[in-house]
Amino acid sequence: MISARYHVIYYAESFCALSETYVYRTAQCLSSIAPTTILTHNRTHRGAFPDDGLNIHVEPRSSSLGARTLALLGAWLRTKIKDSASIDSDLLLRLTDRGNEGLVFAQFGLAGVRALSATSAIGWPLIVNFHNCDLTTWLIFRGYAKNLEILFRSPYTMFLAPSRFIVDKLLALGAPDIRTRVYNNPIPIPICLRNFEQRRRTVVFLHAGRLVPMKGIKYTLRAFADVVSDCDASLRVIGGGPEKDEAIALASNLGIEGRVTFLGAVDYSVVEREMGLADVLVQHSVTAEHGETEGLPVAFCEAMAHQLPIVSTRHAGIPEVVEDGVTGRLVPEKDIDSMASAMRDLALDANLRRRFGEQGRRVVEQKFSMAAAELELQKIISDASLLANNLANKRYPG
Predict the structure, then answer these.
(1) Is residue 194 in some structural domain?
(2) pLDDT at residue 397 above 60?
(3) What is the band of 132 on the pLDDT scale with cuts at 50, 70, 90?
(4) Is the per-residue pLDDT at 232 higher than 50?
(5) Whole-angstrom distance, CA of residue 378 vs CA of residue 154
(6) For a 10 Å CB count at each end of the chain, is N or C smaller?
């Protein structure tokens, strides 16, 4: 464990949505390597994400116009950040008993923006963990984009992302290469291995992800309709979202409604159960109409930990974890015929499913396990501490 004098404030504005298992796991990893307080404004889904010894502080966000005005003015005067939800340095000092050295690990770019004024005021290092939504959906807001420019210029700040694809996006927006790196989302590794000898007639495909355009559920359904024309297979779909009703209607129109089960948004315990029962994870990721893309889907790593082969597309950061012909099959975006062919190959070849699944498990164990994440976080926090010390002594080159 890092020195007890060094206290980590893990800042997640909401802790945490059902789809944000990586937020919870990073909290667990940080708490294992350093004294850690989780700072949040909204504690949700306790059943799915129990406290389990985590030190969680819920700080209600003030709705007072006066408080928001003061927060906006303070952040502007100190850093030129324009955000009335910026947090205050007194809160950070109170959470670390004032005498401890501190560091803020902000989950998502917006949390990093809102923590910058406070960390700058007291000279603490700031680590900001970006995800794909930070650099797609949120960038349509000009105020957020301008605040990111200021955040990238902060010499006390380090920038993380779960794939090289997202790191490259950060660099293109102005993040400094010397302080930007990949941090893989931690994945729990199931103890029990899959029993590949268990034989059954029906092959189960699983989709696990929100039903939004970039997840490509309509392409998956069309490919699956082709597969079941000559294979005994079923498809189980985890996830809610704006395309759910359209997907259900499409399954009916394709005549496969009896082969497809829509489970909706579920807790991770249900995801684990479904991954344990499935044979192949399938997701036809695409670039959406307004340019939205995946980063590196966490569900892929979770499935590989369960020894599931992956069928997906050559899209965004997916090839960084799924190697075509080694841990799964990758096809071009919107190529339904190639998707169906890849799914059919795996449906008909149990040995191929075994080979891809076993190799996928090895990849996740080496790069994405909780233990691997803890080691990487130790390095990141040590580097952030060195960065702050060098700046305090005016030795840091830039």
Answers:
(1) no
(2) no
(3) confident
(4) yes
(5) 22
(6) C
Q: What is the pLDDT of residues 152-209, one digit of tens each?
A: 999 999 999 999 999 999 999 999 999 999 999 999 898 877 776 666 789 999 999 9
One domain, residues 29 and 112: yes
Structure tokens at 123: 């000279």
Which amino acid is it at 76?
Answer: W
The mean pLDDT of 334-338, rounded to a whole number, is: 98
Does 67 share its domain with 153? Answer: yes
DSSP 187: B
- In sequence order, which residues have a C-beta less than 8 Å from that of residue 79 and are 6 or more positions away? 116, 117, 120, 150, 154
pLDDT digits (tens, 9 = 90+) for 361-379: 999 999 999 999 999 999 9
Q: How far apart are CA 155 and CA 386, in angstroms?
A: 12
Question: Could you tell me if 162 and 246 lie in one domain?
Answer: no
Question: Measured in whole angstroms, how far is the alpha carbon of residue 292 from the centre of its chain?
Answer: 15
- Total tally of structural domains belonging to the chain: 2
pLDDT reading at 357 higher than 90: yes
Tokens of 231: 């294979």
Instruction: Specify the pLDDT at position 394.
Output: 60
Range(s) of the domain holding residue 379: 6-186+369-392
Report the pLDDT value the prediction gives residue 398, as an integer from 0 to 100.
Answer: 44
Q: How many CA atoms lie within 13 A of 112 on its CB side?
A: 28
Verify that 141 and 216 share a domain, yes or no.
Answer: no
- Does residue 163 contact residue 320 with C-beta atoms inside 8 Å? yes
Judge contact between 154 and 127, C-beta under 8 A. Answer: no
DSSP track, 262-328: EEES--HHHHHHHHHH-SEEE------TTS---S--HHHHHHHHTT--EEEES-TTGGGT--BTTTE
- Taking a C-beta distance cutoff of 8 angstroms, is the pair 280, 205 a contact? yes
Tokens of 372: 């691997």
Do 214 and 346 fall into the same domain? yes
Regarding whether 255 and 223 lie in a shared domain, the answer is yes
